[in-house]
Design goal:
Low-confidence stretches: none
Largest sheet: 7 strands, mixed
Pfam families: AAA_31
Number of helices: 11
Helix content: 40-55%
Order of helices and strands: EHEHHEEHHEHEHEHHHH
Protein name: AAA family ATPase
Radius of gyration: 17 Å
Structural class: alpha/beta
Distance between the termini: 12 Å
Shape: globular
Number of strands: 7
Length: about 250
């Protein structure tokens, strides 16, 4: 079971959209996939049609109860989030082994899935640390903007600290660029800069700006179901194939 944390300390990078559609892409490849929404904003949860959930990952973290797994399709499940997670950071401060709670919860599903994708909050708090401690590898989406990797040194440093103290096998599996507009001259310059920074960690596939990606989430479905011929569907299919080969 490969556990992947999808993480960026900045908002608006396409992190949740990517988690949703990579997960759907893996399921289309008949890989048993579990999505975990550990972001209090619950965008992944709502983007797959789950609203006002009664039991969320917050309950599991707080009470050490089994993960509340909801079925989306034959090969795709989700552990939903809720706004209650907003208080989890404070509640975790006094807990023993607070960094390893999610890792312990995932032991109960070990072997039941091929892939687990954790959608992290755009912050570097205790919930994100929990995701990194549980994960085998990290995927980092970067928006195609000049300041895309402002503060990325801090993120890489956090990953390194977690590797040193809690999870020696944690790796950065790859980086991919989102919200690409091929018609902008600046796009190529940004891509070159990111490639210099991350070298061979940069995936060949980039995700183009595509309204179908937004519309699909508003409908509560993935882009493959909503618009299978769209640029968004093509790009995430290609990215999923890269992930299957490289991770």
């Amino acid at each position: 079971m490969k556990i992947i944390a999808v993480i960026n300390h900045k908002g608006g990078t396409g992190k949740t959209t990517s988690t949703l559609n990579i997960g759907a892409g893996l399921a289309r490849a008949k890989k048993r996939t579990l999505l975990i929404d550990i972001d209090p904003q619950s965008n992944l949860t709502e983007g797959l049609g789950f609203r006002d959930v009664k039991v969320s990952i917050y309950d599991s973290i707080k009470n050490d109860t089994p993960l509340p797994i909801e079925t989306i399709s034959e090969y795709l499940d989700i552990v939903p989030s809720s706004l209650d997670l907003l208080g989890a950071e404070i509640e975790l401060v006094s807990r023993l082994g607070r960094e390893t709670i999610v890792k312990r919860l995932l032991k109960a599903v070990d072997g039941k899935y091929d892939y687990v994708l954790i959608d992290c909050a755009p912050a570097l708090g205790m919930l994100t640390v929990n995701a990194l401690v549980a994960a085998d590898t990290v995927l980092i989406p970067l928006e195609a903007e000049y300041f895309a990797y402002r503060g990325i040194d801090r993120l890489v440093s956090i990953i390194s600290d977690v590797r040193t103290h809690y999870n020696e096998d944690l790796t950065i599996g790859g980086v991919f660029i989102t919200k690409i507009n091929p018609r902008r001259v600046i796009t190529e310059q940004i891509t070159d800069s990111i490639k210099k920074y991350f070298s061979d960690k940069l995936f060949e596939t980039s995700i183009r700006v595509n309204v179908a990606l937004i519309e699909a989430q508003l409908k509560g479905v993935d882009v493959f179901e909503y618009a299978p011929l769209s640029n968004g569907a093509v790009d995430y299919e290609n990215l999923t194939e890269e992930i299957l080969v490289k991770l």
